[in-house]
């Protein structure tokens, strides 16, 4: 028992100091979506294939574009798989906690996404 106690004393902690220390995410992590309006051809396949119905196609500057409801999203990234133009990519941004659901709406606006949960 003493041997076990001593070995535990000198072990690295299993927990991290997040949020005081920035958390490292593993390679391939699926965080908040990044949408590139320049690549999008308005086909709507991302919206059609989203299993959580988290993508709404909306009209922006005369072009149909995906609007993401992150409160519904399960971060499966089927949308990116279905997109023929690679216009949806994942990011490492995961701090999406919000008090209001409206803060979890990612609106496509011109060439960028707008929303209070925008990547820092
Ligand atoms: S990651 Fe999955 S749930 Fe989220 S918008 Fe894309 S397809 Fe829908
Ligand atoms: S699948 Fe890709 S190209 Fe089609 S509407 Fe969605 S983001 Fe645009």
Could you characterize the architecture of this molecule?
- With 120 residues, the protein is an alpha+beta fold.
- The chain has one domain (14-114): Alpha-Beta Plaits.
- It has helices spanning 2-9, 45-49, 78-82; strands at residues 33-35, 55-60, 63-69, 88-90, 105-109, 112-114.
- The strands form 2 sheets. A 4-stranded antiparallel beta sheet has the order 2-3-5-6.
- Strand 2 and strand 3 (63-69) form a beta hairpin.
- The radius of gyration is 19 Å and the shape is elongated.
- Mean pLDDT is 90; it is low at 115-120.
- Bound molecules: iron/sulfur cluster (2 copies).
- The site of one iron/sulfur cluster has 12 residues, from helix 3.
- One iron/sulfur cluster binds at residues 50, 52, 54-55, 68, 73-79.
Give a quick precis of the structure.
The protein is α+β, with helices and mostly antiparallel strands and 120 residues long.
The number of domains: 1
Largest sheet: 4 strands, antiparallel
User: What is the top-level CATH class?
Assistant: Alpha Beta
How many DSSP H or I helices? 3
What fold name goes in the CATH topology slot?
Alpha-Beta Plaits
CATH architecture: 2-Layer Sandwich
Please render the helix and strand layout as text.
Layout: H1 2-9, E1 33-35, H2 45-49, E2 55-60, E3 63-69, H3 78-82, E4 88-90, E5 105-109, E6 112-114
Antiparallel strand pairs: 1-4, 2-3, 3-5, 5-6
The structure holds iron/sulfur cluster (SF4) (2 copies).
Question: Any descriptors?
Answer:
alpha+beta, Alpha-Beta Plaits, two-stranded antiparallel sheet, 3 helices, 6 strands, disordered C terminus
């Amino acid at each position: 028992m003493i041997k076990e106690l001593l070995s535990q004393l000198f072990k690295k902690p299993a927990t991290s100091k997040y949020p005081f220390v920035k958390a490292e995410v593993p390679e391939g992590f699926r965080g908040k979506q990044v949408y590139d309006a320049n690549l999008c051809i308005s086909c709507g396949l991302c919206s059609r294939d989203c299993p959580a119905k988290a993508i709404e196609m909306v009209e922006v500057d005369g072009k149909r574009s995906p609007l993401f409801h992150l409160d519904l999203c399960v971060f499966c990234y089927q949308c990116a798989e279905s997109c023929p133009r690679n216009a949806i990519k994942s990011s490492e941004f995961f701090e999406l906690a919000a008090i209001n659901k409206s803060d979890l709406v990612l609106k496509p606006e011109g060439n960028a996404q707008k929303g209070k949960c925008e990547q820092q």
